[in-house]
Design goal:
about 375 residues, alpha+beta, T-fold, 8-stranded antiparallel beta sheet, 6-stranded mixed beta sheet, 9 helices
Length: about 375
């Protein structure tokens, strides 16, 4: 297997803020549990590779990654990284040298964190979780993301459930407090879960069951990535890479007209060992998997993707799912949704959606591509 020089920009096991620490499909980055995982690598101009989140927490003092980017005549690509959303956020501009654009994009991360964080007391999601039993009115942005999460909960018949917070708070994946809850604790938490008990009436949100809680982690980073792309384009940027700790979004193509290359990491292997490399233009690539965010009790591994029906991790033959699509918020939600649904149902769902492709990796390291993937996405190796 060819190895590439890599720059690790991933969510890590011991992250301690609510952002990027969600445990289940709905917690990808706003609590202490879930993981979406990718790793940025460089190959010639730019090479990206996926990773399920590593077990060590990225420190604010860690060296910032500096991608190797080929220069275009007249313009020197710039790249900056910052520790935000409890992960390393990296933005590379290929057709602009204005660093202020990246700085403003980082400010957008802060803005949305202050709206969508589950643990920041001033955030709308925190206030929602505290007050929605009596109804609570949220901003248009929060309503937009809640609506998207609700739709995916419906689409998956609850396999993706944005109200899973009471359960994932027990497991605490990715924190120093992660543990195997007792059967009684899990049974109790399950009584407070159910997207169908979440009422959305315009901007007014109501919980129709006591003890409910919202966690937008599995879709929030994708949502923010999309918003950053909109901002970059509004500033005249048409060639860029946005990496929100693993959610990779490519704006346009490279200045020379070539595609960006994205490597999919081989599960349970070194981060720079890829199992496939694809080329994309103006698309997003997001993965979910089980082999980085987990702990072991009595010889059994417990991973972060929890089943809202049983309260325990999903047990199927999958190790990861990678989604390629236009909107990162959709890739974010679909990667975990399809993992939860399993190989057969997950592939059927993706094949029912327009301009959406996926590759499923099973425990035997076999790659299962959805229909149309190879016809529309170039596989380099």
């Amino acid at each position: 297997m060819r190895k590439y020089h890599m720059i690790n920009i991933i969510k890590h096991k011991n992250q301690k803020s609510d952002l990027n620490n969600n445990s289940n499909q709905n917690k990808g980055f706003f609590t202490k549990r879930t993981i979406k995982f990718l790793t940025l690598i460089t190959l010639s101009t730019v090479m990206l590779t996926f990773n399920a989140c590593a077990k060590k927490t990225p420190s604010k003092d860690s060296p910032e990654p500096t991608p190797t980017i080929a220069e275009k005549e007249g313009t020197t690509p710039i790249s900056k990284s910052s520790f935000k959303l409890n992960t390393v956020v990296s933005i590379t501009l290929y057709d602009s040298e204005d660093e202020r654009i990246i700085d403003e994009a980082f400010q957008l991360c802060d803005y949305y964190e202050n709206l969508l964080s589950r643990t920041k007391k001033e955030s709308e999601i925190y206030q929602l979780n505290e007050k929605a039993h009596n109804s609570y009115t949220v901003s248009d942005e929060t309503k937009e993301l809640l609506t998207k999460g609700f739709l995916y909960s419906q689409l998956s018949d609850g396999a993706f459930d944005l109200t899973l917070e009471p359960l994932t708070s027990l497991w605490n994946f990715g924190s120093s407090e992660e543990r195997l809850p007792s059967p009684d604790e899990i049974k109790e938490a399950l009584t407070h879960i159910g997207y169908q008990y979440l009422k959305l009436d315009g901007n007014t949100i109501t919980f129709e069951k006591d003890g409910m809680g919202i966690d937008l982690g599995a879709i929030a980073k994708g949502y923010i990535a999309d918003k950053i792309k909109e901002f970059l384009v509004s500033k005249g940027v048409n060639s860029a890479i946005i990496n929100l700790g693993g959610n990779i979004l490519c704006v346009g193509e490279k200045p020379d007209g070539s595609a960006f290359k994205v490597g999919i990491q081989k599960p349970f292997k070194d981060r720079n060992e890829t199992i496939a490399v694809i080329e994309i233009r103006d698309l997003t690539v997001v993965s979910s998997g089980i082999y980085e965010r987990f702990f072991t009790v009595d010889g059994k591994n417990y991973h972060h993707i929890l089943n809202p029906s049983t309260g325990y991790p999903y047990e199927n033959d999958l190790t990861s799912v990678t989604i390629v699509t236009k909107e990162s918020v959709d890739g974010d939600a679909l990667s975990t949704t399809c993992f939860a649904l399993g190989l057969e149902k997950g592939m059927k769902l993706i094949e029912s959606l327009p301009d959406t492709y996926a590759v499923f990796i099973t425990s035997d390291y076999e790659l299962h591509y959805t229909k149309g993937f190879k016809e529309n996405i170039k596989i380099v190796e």
